[in-house]
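Lecture 7 notes: from sequence to structure.
We start with the chain below.
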Amino acid sequence: MKRSELIEQLQTNEQWDLIVIGGGATGLGTAVDAASRGFKTLLLEAYDFAKGTSSRSTKLVHGGVRYLAQGNVSLVYEALHERGRLQRNAPHLVKPLSFVVPGYKWWNLPWYGTGLVLYSLMAGKLGFGISKPISKKEALRLAPTLEPDGLLGGVTYYDGQFDDTRLALALMRTIQDKGGVAINYMRVTEMTKANGKVDGVVAQDTIGSQEFRLRAKAVINATGVFVDQVRQMDEPGASKLISPSQGIHFVLDKSFLPGDHAIMIPKTDDGRVLFAVPWHNRVILGTTDTPVKEVKLEPRPLHEEIEYLLSHAARYLSKAPTPADVLSVYTGLRPLMKGEAGSSTASLSREHTLLVSPSGLITITGGKWTTYRKMGEVTVDKAIEVGGLSKVACVTQEMPVHGWSKEPQAEPFAVYGSDAAALKELLAEQPGWEKPLHANLPYLAGEVAWAARYEQARTVEDFLARRTRALLLDARASQEMAPKVAELLAAELGFDEAWQTEQVQLYRELAAGYLLQPDKAEAKTAPVTAG
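Predicted C-alpha cells for the same chain:
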C-alpha cells in the first residue's frame, strides 16, 4: 500500500476503535490481534518498524532455560507454548534449532540433563524435540569449535530461531491484510482528552510534516523502552516503570561455529546465558546484561561489554575471535520492570506488565519476542473493557501471519515465504535487478524496489538494517552497498541526488557504530524528507 493511501485513511477516518503507539514486537502483535478481531485499528510508529529493541535480539524464539533454573515455571511454560504456536503460524520465519550444552565439571551433565529434559517435556505437543546426553566425541562433532580441554560431554536440547525484523514486517503486512493501518515515521506528540479521559492522539508525519488529530475509543502505549516517555505525555510526573538494561552481540564468520548446531553456556560470570548461534550463514555471539541510565534510539556497546564477550569466547571456543573478526556488533535495550534497589538487571522480571492510567491510557511493556502474541491478546482484552468495545474472542492462536508457507525457499527468498513468487516476478522488471548488491551478501538489487513498494522502506537504513540484515551480517559491506541502494530507492520514491548523497553519508555514519574501532562516531538516524 502506498504511503499516500495510508495518509488518506488517517484523513478520512473520524474515529478508530484502537490506536496503538509503537511498531515493535508488542505494538505489532497488539495491532494484529485487534485487526483480526475486526476492530478498526491504527498503529503509529515514530521511526521504522522494529527500529529499536525488536531488531536487536539473539534471534531465538525460546522458553527461557535460565528462567526455569530460577524457578519461574509459569513463565517458561507460557513461552514454550507460544514458541510452538509461532512456529506453526510462521514456519517460513521460525525454525527448530538444536543446541549443545557442554559440561566441563562432573556435576554439569546430570544437572543440565535433568533440567533440559523437563524443559523439553513442558512444551508438550508443541515441542521441538527431547533433550538427551551426548559424549565428548559427539559434542565436538556437533560443535567442532567447542573448547576440548576439560570437556566431559554435553547435553542437546531444542529451541527456535527466527529473523526478528522479517517477522515484524510480516506482522505489519498482516495488519494490512486484516483491514488495519500501520504506518511508520508517524510520531505521536500529544494525548488528547475529553472529560479527563484519553480519546486520541496528535501525530506528526516526519516525512510530509503534516499533523493529524486522531480519535480513538482506546489508546495503547506499546513503545518498549520508551513507554515512560509516552506515559508522561498522559500524566506529567508519572513514576517510571522501566529499569533499562542493554545487551550486545557480535556477528562472526561461519568458521567460528561450523555446522547447524548452536552452543549454550548456562551460566556466565554475570549470571547470564551465553549463546553462539548460527544465523544467515554467520554466527551470533551474545549476550551481556548491563544496566544503563539513559534510553537511546541507537545504543552503543561499552568497552567492558566488548571485553566480556571476547574473554568468554576465548574461554569456551577453541577458535577465539579477535576484534578484527567481528563483522558487526549490535546493541539492544531491554524494557525490564524496575525492581528493588540494588537488584541486578539479570534478575529483573522478563514478564510483561499491563496497566491502565486514571485517564484510560493502556500501557503494555516487558516480555519478549516469543510471547508477543499473548501480550497482544491480553492487551486487546483490556482495551475492549476500557474502550467499551464489542466483546470479540481472540483468533491469533492458530492464525497464520502474512507470508505463511511450509515450502522452503532458497536464499535470499526464504524469509519472504509465499511472497517469494511475486518477488521473483518483480526481479524480472528491470535488467540487473536479479543481481547481488554485494559479493559478500545474498541480497539482490530488485529487493530494494520490493521493500519500497510493499514494506514501507523509506531510507537506506530501513533497507540495509531491517528489510535485509546487511548491517548486522557485515557492517562494512553494507556501507559499500549504500550508494546503489540510495539510487534504487530514490528511483522508486521520487527522491533527488541531494537526498541520495545525504542518505549515504548518514547511513555510513550509523554503520560505523556497528564496527569495533577506537573512535566510533555517535550514530544518527537518517531523516526522511519529501522528494
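Points to note: The CA atoms of residues 288 and 305 lie 6 Å apart. The domain at 3-53+166-242+348-398 is CATH 3.50.50.60 (FAD/NAD(P)-binding domain).
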